[in-house]
Design brief:
The complex is a heterodimer. Chain A is of the alpha/beta class. Chain A contains ten helices and eight strands. Chain B is mainly β. Chain B starts with a helix and ends in a 7-residue tail after the last strand. The interface between A and B is large, with 80 and 87 residues.
Chain lengths: ~300, ~450
Amino acid sequence: MKSLLMGTMMAALALLAAPAQAVLNVFATVPEWGALAEALGGDAVKVYVATNALQDPHHVEAKPSLIARARNADLVVATGAELEIGWLPLVLQQAGNPKLRPGQPGFFEAASFVALRDKPTRLDRAEGDVHPAGDPHIQTDPRNIARVATALAARLAEVDPANADGYRARYQAFDARWRAAIARWEQQAAPLKGVPIVVQHKAFTYLIAWLGLREVATLEPKPGVEPTTASLSEVLALLQRDPAKMVLRAAYQGDRASQWIAERAKVVPVVLPFTVGGDDRATDLYGLFDDTIARLQKGAQ
Amino acid sequence: MTPRLSACVLCALALSHPFAATAATDADLAEIREQIKSLKDTYETRIRALEARLQAAEAAASAPSAAAAPPANAPAATASSANTLAAFNPAISLVLQGTYAHLSQDPNQFAIQGFQVSGDTGPGRRGLGLGESELGFFASVDDKFAGSLTLSLTPDNQVSVEEAYGLMTALPYGLTPKFGRFFSGIGYLNDQHQHAWDFQDAPLVYQAFLGGQFTEDGGQIKWVAPTDTFVELGAEAGNGDAFPGSPRNSNGVGSYTVFAHMGGDVGASSSWRAGLSYLEARSSDRDGTLSNVAGQLVDTGFSGTSRVTIVDGVWKYAPNGNARETNFKLQGEYFWRRERGSLTYDRDGALGLASTSDYSASQTGWYLQGVWQFAPMWRVGLRYDRLDPGNPDYGANAVYLAAAAFNPERSTVMLDYTPSEFSRFRVQYAQSKTRPDFTDNQFFLQYILTLGAHGAHKF
């Protein structure tokens, strides 16, 4: 048994002799930041995305694969605002990679470059799964992505100065194209202004503010708390007084509550990709918003 | 073993060190120009980032919902001096538990045939009982260390230090040393706190071979390999006071462990971890309980060496990796322990038959369990435990102890309800046959409440 253990250790030592890295290893916690890092980093970066669009970003486990990837990363790109509180600190603690410690240049939190909405006035778990710093789902507003892109390009240049020129050039190209796209999306979505909607989880605060949608109700009685028939009935009563056009949910969420209310309140259930990879058309950041707007327009008809 | 291992770790350190390209030759003008340019570019990008942040802050300030969304970048340094003292307080978490147990057999008669049990074993008390309450503190010490303390407050008003350790957080090359008192990294379940287990009690192998859970007072070093597949190697040295060791009143080290873990993902839906661990501990007159040929519980003392080898594996499945709706977890561990030394029969002299003789044994055991979350918040679990006491050589004490072959076993089923990440309620039923003619039908109700800082569960 001892010799088997020693054999394992020797094999691991052999693996160590791998060549030094040529590219910057980026560990993105969620798909949107992975896509952004790829857009800004091009071939200078190798991006690993820790979660996929069909995973609830609040409920991720500190899996062995994540620890292994964090061990080799040069830069963590996280959302922050406690979105990853349940797993990222543990992954970083176990990975033994001091470059990624909070406060180091290798630790990037997107939410610290965006004005967060819905900061809770009462910090108490009786209020559900509250995020003390504010709503962390900032990627649903493309203007936030532009802000994060500016900061991320600067951070990439800081941790990898040898490729700073490339990051700057790609950032400028991205920024110009992204701003043009925002103008296009805003034009396309202009008729959506004031459209009353219901959301399943408070995941679209920034999208709603950006497009001027009107949020009538939330199906979850409290953030992160599963709706019950009683709580849905209250929403139904509210919708009879103040009807809404659609009920929005993210691709990772179950359809039970949305279907329940859609059948009774004559609202159209709309599944939004929420992040890159959330459906077939949201293959990159542009596709994410093209598809989000298209689905909203279809739902509002 | 351990000197060889530390040599290996040193080799690892030396090998993984990138060969520094610091061959400084004449100052190359072009290179300096390049550096200045890159410096300039970096600063330009940073200034643009700051401008963007300023714009964002201004936009937020002028937005209609400004009151609801204050700019996140407002300098935090304006906190009043009264708050700054509290700002350095550690994160505090609290676990509250309670159990109702209905046991068909007297828990005071608990023993595992062929195994000297001691420590935290058995089904606990009958009736309503407060479980162990846990108080945890965690914070960074300085730029190089973090510290953690977990106190266990027992229902009989005792306080015990469950874990109290320092952690080095700034070492490179995937190294994370730990020192103090901590749950050993051997096996799968050993370093998880009891409230994170999927059943109300520990598997029989943990009770029989490790006295519940193996705690080290000493040091640990873990190393994560720089590979895409998770490979972690670890080693520990401790005083060996905890079962299967015992306090020995001697200098030096009383227990060693080495362990290796591997893990990864299969597609988007499955992830796994497998491990191999080895523990060696020394005992001097280790107190235990054993049933004799007449079925009486007798006090025993073991002096000698215990060597435990553990193979563990866990596989988790969640559709597309989304564990929120449904998920499945399969876990199993196999234990093999060899003990050699001397055994004192009737150590406390209750029977007036105290005698010491040579003792050696090779014993095995395993458990396999599956837990299925069939709907959000609801899980069912099934577990099977089995032990093989082998054929222990009791020497001259065989006349008292050599009983007919019997394999202890237990079957358990549980159902739990988890309204939020912070609360869980469980019912559990087990049929436990740890001694011949001693079938215990165990029924448990349990609650677990978690308060305070948001903890993270290990995989």
